[in-house]
Write a structure and sequence with these properties.
Shape: globular
Low-confidence stretches: none
CATH class of the largest domain: Alpha Beta
Strand order of the largest sheet: 2-3-1-4
Order of helices and strands: HHHHEHEEHE
CATH architecture of the largest domain: 2-Layer Sandwich
CATH topology of the largest domain: Alpha-Beta Plaits
Number of helices: 6
Distance between the termini: 38 Å
Structural class: alpha+beta
Length: 155
């Protein structure tokens, strides 16, 4: 593995399923802040963090790092954003992985690549035949040229 590929590999995030009881309280409160913000269209981040009792800096530190896992994800939609190298065939490899894992592509939005990096947002329908979502996510992250993957939403 060359130096560049090794550095990319080390930057890729790993996902874990952890019981709620094992999580630090601050992470659970970040989830609560996100719920408040989703439910109330006019709540500010300041209002929400005050309500649950954490600082804004704690919220901002962890807001993108914790997302509730739903066992009933089948028949639902998952939306994620990829940053990938601007090289031919990488998006095709991602789509092949999605198909191989039994999910259905609903939308793909690829922006113009900047500085050799192409941002792609993708929404997938999770079908009864879809394998475990995290297995699919990890397989996509393992594709050479995928720089990052962030789950934006599960509905």
């Amino acid at each position: 593995m060359n130096k560049k590929a090794k550095a990319e590999s080390e930057r890729k995030e790993k996902y874990y399923i952890v019981k709620k009881a094992a999580l630090p309280e601050v992470l659970l409160k970040v989830v609560e802040v996100n719920k408040i913000l989703e439910r109330s269209g006019n709540a500010t981040i300041q209002d929400a963090v005050e309500k649950v009792g954490i600082s804004r800096s704690s919220y901002y530190k962890y807001k993108d790092d914790i997302v509730p896992f739903h066992d009933n994800a089948r028949g639902k939609t998952i939306t994620f954003m990829l940053q990938m190298a601007d090289e031919p065939g990488i998006l095709s490899l991602v789509l092949n992985e999605v198909a191989k894992n039994g999910a259905n592509v609903l939308t793909i939005n690829q922006s113009i690549p900047i500085n050799g990096s192409a941002p792609v947002t993708m929404s997938l329908e999770i079908l009864p035949t879809t394998v475990d979502i995290m297995v699919m996510i990890e397989a996509i992250e393992a594709i050479e040229g995928i720089r990052s993957l962030k789950i934006l939403a599960r509905e």
